[in-house]
């Protein structure tokens, strides 16, 4: 299958052009059919391409030297969508010049620009930010929303569940992923009214390519017992940061323990295979590439501090979603929800962009 090219916001992220171009080159090393539209300062991009000769014939450069800063408010950033590398990368998807966009820039700005340019699918009120997180099982867990929407009602949560299940079927290969709502307990009486209403709707829904299994608590997210965890963006972002912080705490604690004495250093050499496996499992670059689900187009957010390896992972995620027709799958699944879910389409009143 010939994939559409992928637009890369080459100016986004902590290191910008060098890492973004190197990441695209790494992705293409494993997937020779990848083609790119590199958006950013043409001179800097050309210099970066000199280190990756194989990229020249697979890339086109769209010059732009205007960049959205990491602390710029989305409400201000969207006014410069037509002049910035991020905005032009997203617009390339809108105009059909690219099949997907990848950026490591300002998350709030990327969401706002993407929603305005691409709009949401019929039946989707708000896009959601979804990402993969490691578990004790061979598969990752899909979690959404991770910060695109600070609040969500029952209808939003149901839509998030449908989108998350479609994403899980692509990245993990499950025919009917297990979906649970994040809550403070697993009992039916626990949680907000929105959570309980969403649980009722998902329990009663028929024909969906998922298995709804009630609620899950945050300490079970990484156990691998569930394939998709659904929540609002406020709770999801807090949970994500807590998990990331715990992972860093564990690795830092191990580093201190293994360097505290000669005996500890010897112990490290003995246990190195196990610690290397742990380090690989917790490395965020191996799970990089959050996706804005619910848009009329594929937009992938790379972590701002991602290495070239992490950027390559984000590019590979974008290509996989194109190859597996994510947008069509979500649209088909929404159709199974019936007229009630389609009453409030993405063409209704616009939600204000999240300024966080």
Question: How are the SSEs placed, and which strands pair?
Answer:
Layout: E1 6-9, H1 17-30, E2 36-40, H2 42-49, E3 59-63, H3 74-77, H4 85-94, E4 100-103, H5 107-118, E5 128-133, E6 141-144, H6 154-171, E7 178-182, H7 193-204, E8 211-216, E9 228-230, H8 233-258, H9 262-282, E10 290-293, E11 298-301, H10 308-323, H11 326-337, H12 339-342
Helix pairs in contact: 1-2, 1-10, 4-5, 6-7, 6-11, 8-9
Can you summarize this structure?
The protein has 356 residues and is an alpha/beta fold.
General description of the model:
Helices cover 44% and strands 14% of the residues. The protein has helices at 17-30, 42-49, 74-77, 85-94, 107-118, 154-171, 193-204, 233-258, 262-282, 308-323, 326-337, 339-342; strands at 6-9, 36-40, 59-63, 100-103, 128-133, 141-144, 178-182, 211-216, 228-230, 290-293, 298-301. The chain contains 12 helices and 11 strands. With 356 residues, it is an alpha/beta fold. Strands 3-2-1-4-11-10-5-6-9-7-8 form an 11-stranded mixed beta sheet, with helices on both faces. The radius of gyration is 21 Å and the shape is globular.
**What's the N-to-C terminus distance?**
39 Å
What string, H for helix and E for strand, traces the elements in order?
Answer: EHEHEHHEHEEHEHEEHHEEHHH
> Helical content, roughly?
40-55%
Number of strands: 11
Rg calculated over all Cα atoms:
21 Å
Extract low-pLDDT stretches: 340-353
Overall SS class? alpha/beta
Question: How much of the polypeptide forms β-strand, as a percent range?
Answer: 5-15%
Average residue-wise pLDDT: 84
Spatial order of strands in the largest sheet: 3-2-1-4-11-10-5-6-9-7-8
Total helical elements: 12
Largest sheet: 11 strands, mixed
Morphology call: globular
């Amino acid at each position: 299958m010939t994939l559409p090219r992928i637009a890369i916001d080459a100016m986004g992220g902590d290191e910008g052009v060098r890492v973004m171009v190197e990441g695209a080159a790494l992705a293409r090393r494993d997937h020779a059919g990848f083609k790119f539209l590199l958006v950013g300062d043409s001179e800097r991009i050309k210099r970066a391409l000199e280190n990756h000769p194989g990229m020249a014939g697979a890339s086109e450069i769209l010059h732009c030297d205007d960049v959205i800063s990491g602390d710029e408010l989305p409400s201000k950033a969207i006014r410069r969508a037509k002049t910035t590398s991020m905005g032009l990368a997203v617009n390339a998807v809108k105009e059909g010049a690219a099949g997907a966009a990848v950026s490591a820039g300002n998350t709030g700005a990327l969401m706002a620009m993407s929603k305005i340019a691409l709009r949401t699918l019929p039946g989707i009120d708000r896009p959601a930010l979804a990402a993969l997180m490691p578990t004790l099982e061979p598969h990752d867990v899909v979690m959404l929303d991770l910060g695109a929407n600070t609040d969500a009602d029952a209808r939003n949560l149901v839509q998030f569940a449908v989108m998350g299940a479609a994403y899980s079927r692509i990245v993990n290969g499950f025919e009917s992923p297990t979906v649970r709502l994040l809550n403070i307990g697993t009992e039916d009486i626990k949680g907000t009214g929105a959570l309980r209403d969403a649980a009722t709707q998902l329990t009663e829904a028929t024909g969906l390519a998922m298995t709804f299994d009630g609620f899950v608590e945050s300490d079970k997210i990484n156990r691998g017992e569930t394939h998709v965890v659904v929540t609002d963006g406020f709770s999801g972002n807090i949970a994500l940061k807590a998990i990331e912080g715990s992972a860093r705490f564990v690795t830092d604690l191990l580093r201190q323990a293994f360097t505290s004495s000669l005996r500890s250093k010897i112990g490290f050499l003995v246990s190195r295979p196990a610690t290397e496996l742990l380090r690989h499992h917790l490395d965020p670059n191996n799970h990089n590439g959050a996706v804005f689900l619910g848009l009329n187009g594929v937009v992938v957010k790379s972590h701002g501090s991602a290495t070239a390896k992490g950027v390559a992972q984000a590019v590979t995620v974008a290509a996989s979603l194109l190859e597996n027709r994510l947008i069509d799958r979500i649209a088909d699944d929404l159709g199974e929800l019936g007229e009630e879910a389609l009453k409030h389409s993405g063409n209704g009143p616009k939600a204000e962009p999240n300024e966080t």
